[in-house]
Amino acid sequence: MRRDVSRRDFARVVGATAVGASAALVGASTPVAAQAAGTETSRSLAFPDGFLWGTATAAYQVEGAVTEDGRGPSIWDIFSHTPGKVAGNATGDVADDHYHRYKEDVALMKALGVKGYRFSIAWPRVFPDGTGAPNPKGLDFYNRLLDELHAAGIEPYATLYHWDLPQALQDRVGGWESSETSKAFAEYAGYVAERLSDRVKHIFTINEFGAFVELGYRVGVHAPGLTLAPKAFNQTRHNAVLGHGLAVQAIRAHAKPGTKVGLAENMTVCAPVLETPVHVAAAERATRELNAQYLTVILEGKYTEAYLAAAGADAPVFTDAELAAIGSPIDFVGINIYTPVYVRADDSPAGFTVVPHPASFPHMASPWLFVGPEALYWGPRNVSSIWKVGEIYITENGCSSSDVPAADGLVYDTDRIMYLRNYLSQLQRGVSEGVPVRGYFLWSLMDNFEWADGYTNRFGLHYVDYATQKRTPKLSASFYREVIARNRVL
Q1: Could you tell me the sign of the dihedral formed by the alpha carbons of 248, 249, 255, 257, in that order?
Q2: Are 448 and 463 in contact (CB under 8 A)?
Q3: pLDDT in tens, 82-121
Q4: Residue in 220, 249, 246 with CA at minimum distance from that of residue 233
């Protein structure tokens, strides 16, 4: 998930009556959906029957237990233990202790009414050295988690790589700088698919090329903390998408019949600054070009001419066979969406230009998280229009808030509810127009380790007291529970 790379007041709830009413809602044990009449508003904001409502987490952000049951160190273990790399010198050593508290957390999901849970599998739990002999206990935790999810009626959606690269691969071959890591990832993907696809029918290969590659190998503010020269960096980009393609092939070869495979990318969401035909067309052109290094090459099996021309002598070296692997057909596309980039048409060779945000543009607690609800309309709409993708999931969407508990111990995150209401309204707009979004995974189930921000930013529906590990539903949890129960935006 994207984070504030520079580490840059929620208005206090006032009025005892308002607080008391909110407390009653947070504590409600059952939705009040039955009380809602089938009004015109209800119908106009409804989602189709069978729409999948879910929530999401990632292994290093929630699991803890970093040395248990044979798990090897990841690049984030090493990076977070390096002084000054993470806010407050925080680490994921314990995080939410989900490794031991997963039953409690599945119960939280069931109480929300979600029908899907997107989680990630820690590569260093399965292959502590990245390759070679697998750890016999590596999948035991995930087997237990899958059994618990199915018992609760929740469908698992597994991500194979959410940034926790085995440190051994970083030390041995330079991590994603080498295509050896691409091959090792495929080996790991095939191994997991063969053993878990009896209960996992949707597998995501990689989460957010546009974050872990850019922030880890170019900017250096995420693990492994490198600032590569342009040539080496572009080759790293290529090796990452190659890893995805080889993993798709490995999953196809080893998974049980009926298993679907895709990816989850934090694509650059290009929204027309004005909804007129000329600017809409410019936004589509911009979507293809501004995602050229990752999503475009995966969905087209080739780099755009403009991308290669701009890179010049620093362009990645690749073969036709590698492009064919990268372009291996996938069953669905997951997109992580938080904020848009506004685009206008112009008479440049590209046919578009990005419109910058003014200093007054509103954002959530994370300064990078500009509030642009239309992103949840234009993101999937453009993916469907440009690449004719027939199955799309919003694999992350949510926001940070100051999330300060009130005197009664509850969190009245009305700003998060405002954010979700507006974004979900735009998603419903797209779905009602036939954009093939099949499900939505809210980030996140609970507060957790937010990468370089440590524990300073909270994105969860449940407030986590990290000292006691107590989980408490926020007001937004009640909101989301009602959205799910009514299958419409409230």
Answers
A1: positive
A2: no
A3: 999 999 999 999 999 999 999 999 999 999 999 999 999 9
A4: 220
Could you tell me which of 90, 189, 77, 84 has the C-alpha nearest to residue 130? 189
pLDDT at 9 over 70: no
How many CB atoms are closer than 10 A to CB 176? 29
453: which strand partners?
A: none
**Can you name the residues that pair with 155 across neighbouring β-strands?**
116
Residue with tokens 């109480």: 111
**What is the helix, strand, coil percentage profile of the chain, to 5?**
45, 15, 40
> In 3-state terms, what secondary structure has residue 167?
helix
Q: Annotate 340-408 with DSSP letters as a single string.
A: -EEEEE-SSTTSEEEEPPPTT--B-SSTT-B--TTHHHHHHHHHHHHH--S-EEEEEE---B-----TT
Across 205-235, b (16+ Cβ under 10 Å) vs e yields bbbbbbbbbbbbbbeebbbbbbebeeeebbb
Q: What is the mean pLDDT of residues 301-309?
A: 98
* Gap between the Cα atoms of 129 and 132, Å rounded: 7
What are 408-459's pLDDT values in tens digits? 999 999 999 999 999 999 999 999 999 999 999 999 999 999 999 999 999 9
Residues annotated catalytic, as ranges: 208, 396
Identify residue 84 by its one-letter amino acid code.
G
Q: How far is CA 452 from CA 62, 83, 160, 456, in A?
A: 15, 12, 21, 9
pLDDT tier for residue 280 given thresholds of 50, 70 and 90: very high
Residues contacting 179, CB < 8 A, separation 6+:
239, 242
Token pair 């991590």 is found at 175
Cβ neighbours for 445, distance < 8 A, ≥ 6 positions apart = 55, 56, 57, 62, 105, 108, 109, 117, 460, 461, 462
Has this prediction a pTM greater than 0.85? yes
Residue 256 DSSP label: P
pLDDT confidence band for 43 (50 / 70 / 90):
low
Listed residue (102, 206, 210) closest to 148, CA to CA: 102
Residue 44: per-residue pLDDT: 78
